[in-house]
Amino acid sequence: MKWIKHAILYGIVIIVLFSGQFLFNRGLVSGVPPQLPEQTIAGLPTESVMPKGGGIIYFWADWCGLCGMMQGSMSKVLHDTPGITVALNSGPTDQVNRYLASRNLNWPTVNDADGSVAKRYGIKGVPAIFFLNNNGHIVFSSIGYSTELGLRIRVWLASYFN
Hints:
This protein is an alpha/beta fold. Helices cover 44% and strands 17% of the residues. The protein has six helices and five strands, in the order ααβαβαβαββα. A five-stranded mixed beta sheet has the order 3-2-1-4-5. Strand 4 (128-132) and strand 5 (138-143) form a beta hairpin.
């Protein structure tokens, strides 16, 4: 009898978690990614670092605690996977540069100081991650914390979706 109560409780928790993810992810773009600014904060053309095939577009903010918790995992994944990051509402470019340097984050980053890029992507919160397939189209997206394993699994799965 006790195991039935536990099974029901775990089932309810799973339903609540998936419902929450559905509500947060509703409205995020899919398909062809909207245009990013022309240059990264390092002065590189965005087109040169934008994933052409499979990869990640990662929205984060310097004021976001969950984003800070994901920095190590995201750095490891971006070391192996093409990707670009977007600093959302994190201040002027020199402030974003200082933040990245202070944490040894060598991410290709564009600055979305006013949130206009995030609006085009339908983002309601950070961290937000878009997973691109081999055609460069967004096939998965998520808002919230993700582990390194969770990121890697979704990168791998995205490569199988056309």
